[in-house]
Amino acid sequence: MSKLPHIGTSIFTVMSQMATEHQAINLSQGFPNFPVDERLTAILAKLATANVHQYTPMSGLPSLLDKIAVLTQQSYGRAVTPKEEILITAGATEGIFATIQALVKAQEEVIILDPSYDCYEAPILLSNAKPVRVALNIDFTPNWETITAAVNEKTRLIIINNPHNPTGKMWTESDFDQLEKLVHAYPNLLVLSDEVYEYITFEQPHISVHHRPKLWERSISISSFGKSFHITGWKIGYVIAPEDLMREIKKVHQFLVFSVSSIAQHALNEYIDLVDIKTLGQFYQQKRDVFQSLMKDTKLKLLPCEGTYFQVASYAAISEENDIDFTKRLVTEFGVATIPISIFYANGDDHQCIRFCFAKDEETLTRAAERLRQL
Predict the structure, then answer these.
(1) Distance CA 26, CA 151 (A)
(2) What is the pTM of this model?
(3) Using CA atoms, how far apart are residues 264 and 275, in angstroms rounded to an integer?
(4) Burial of 349 (0-12, 13-18, 19+ CB in 10 A)
(5) Are 126 and 256 in contact (CB under 8 A)?
(6) pLDDT band at 29 (very low <50, low <70, confident <90, very high)
(7) What is the DSSP letter of 304?
(8) Which of 30, 198, 316, 357 is paired with 185 by a 20 to 30 Å CA distance?
(9) What tens digit of pLDDT does each residue of 302-325 get?
(10) Rounded CA gap, 141 and 89, in Å?
(11) Burial class, 265, CB count within 10 angstroms (exposed 0-12 / middle 13-18 / buried 19+)
């Protein structure tokens, strides 16, 4: 008997398979199609013949942990202790899974803000805990009235995602003020902050839990080298948490993967000295602006994109179809694969919106826009 009976093949797999079958341009899955920085591949090639192929320490390569601590200090003004408060993980997904498995007990509740990425719910259910889905406002900002109403003494965790996948929205200082009030009111409540797109922000600067000292002792942050350095297939990220919480997270991590790819850690340890990660927002803002310019002549209405490499668009002026049928027709009739936003809601809430990934080269974005002008 299945522990996760309602979970089947993900829409990301379905749309990518359809894109291949119909030779469509794939703007569905969130991965770049342009080359990795040659400096990183050169480091990797050099390390292939070096003595770096055995296990690293369970928490991560010590020198890389040190550099993450420096990056956190430079980015957010927060000092963290590398050995006790940082953990290298097999991608952000493993960090999220290990955190939930370590800190959430049976019968406890976890708040998920919909639309939400699909990796949050499974580890909650596998903990015999209860996911509580709370919808964001129609403009994808947090509704603090409904969030506050959903929290009770059983609530162990609230998961936030900022910048937000799938919508590209970002939280404000006011939102973090409300979060602090909520955490203060419930001593058992922790915050799991999914910040994998933290360096991919545009006009509005990213606000992190690391900026808010009142949240430090109650927050676990999730970061992703894969997103930041265009190496999603490397599956490498990191978790930052206070020592008492991190001690429990490491216990789960130890029996999930024990330690993460040694050569990847050594490569990133060298590469991080060569690159200014804070320029990443400018890099993707240029791609966003190009994509938005190309899409002006289509009948799709583009919604605000403040961060991430995702662009949400409304097709309400084009069709009354549900978003799943519409995205499938986009593939079969127009040769462009996207993601329907309804799949990010527990109840399948359909606002006739779809998500594009613009982490692609300009030629790909141009060809996709040409096809979408035929709508």
Answers:
(1) 39
(2) 0.97
(3) 16
(4) middle
(5) no
(6) confident
(7) P
(8) 198
(9) 999 999 999 999 999 999 999 999
(10) 29
(11) buried
Q: Is 375 exposed, middle or buried (0-12, 13-18, 19+ CB in 10 A)?
A: middle
Structure tokens at 205: 């600067």
Q: Is the pLDDT of residue 237 over 90?
A: yes
What is d(CA 359, CA 288) in angstroms, rounded to the nearest whole number?
8
Query: In angstroms, rounded to a whole number, what is the distance separating the alpha carbons of residues 9 and 47?
Result: 37
**Band of the pLDDT at 148, cuts 50, 70, 90?**
very high
β 190-194/219-224 pair status? parallel
Helix, strand, coil percentages, rounded to 5, for the chain:
45, 15, 40
Place of tokens 């993967």: 257
Tokens of 274: 């060569």
Residues 249, 102: Cα–Cα separation, whole Å = 5
Supply 77's token pair: 């003004």
* 43-73 residue pLDDT tens: 999 999 999 999 999 999 999 999 999 999 9
The whole-number average pLDDT for the span 173-186 is 98
The tokens describing 315, both together, are 């097709």
Going by C-alpha positions, the residue among 99, 90, 92 that lies closest to residue 60 is 90
In a 3-state reduction of DSSP, which class is residue 127? Answer: coil
The values of phi and psi at residue 149, to 5°, are -65, -25
Q: Give 247's contacts (C-beta < 8 A, 6+ positions apart).
A: none
Q: Where are the alpha helices (DSSP H) in the chain?
A: 11-21, 38-47, 62-76, 82-85, 91-103, 121-126, 144-150, 173-185, 225-228, 243-256, 262-271, 280-294, 323-329, 362-372
Query: What are the two backbone dihedrals, phi and then psi, of residue 190, each rounded to the nearest 5 degrees?
Result: -115, 160
